[in-house]
Amino acid sequence: MPTLPWTQPKRSASLRDEVVVMASRFQLGRWRDVIPFLLAALQIRRQMLRSPGVVGVSLIAKPFAKTFYTLSAWNDRDALDSAVAQQPHLDVMTRFRTRTKGSVFVFWPLGGTHLPPRWDDARSRLDEEARRATPRSRSR
């Protein structure tokens, strides 16, 4: 599946000088979860585009790698947190919590004139966060 490009809501949010960007990476453990997760991700994408304070969203699905990436921008962290606490996101998060391994999330501020955020920047930040979160074995 190709990248679902940066999409802004039909009703435009009042854009601020600085927005909050969130990127995530979900790695599924089992093949049988790929299609249900993809369908859930598309449902959540629709939800997010209707959520107050959303600036835009994008999704990369790599089903053959069992990996999904999201990228979104919000007027502020409160708007993002509020959307995540709503349905269907809340149910999907609960249902897939034990089916994902090594999920990674990053947040950063971005000037409103620099939208949309770049996927290469988001993936670099996700990779760095994954490295930081993975404990390294120490030689003795």
From TrEMBL:
Q: Provide the protein name.
A: Uncharacterized protein
Organism source for this protein?
Answer: Mycolicibacterium parafortuitum (Mycobacterium parafortuitum)
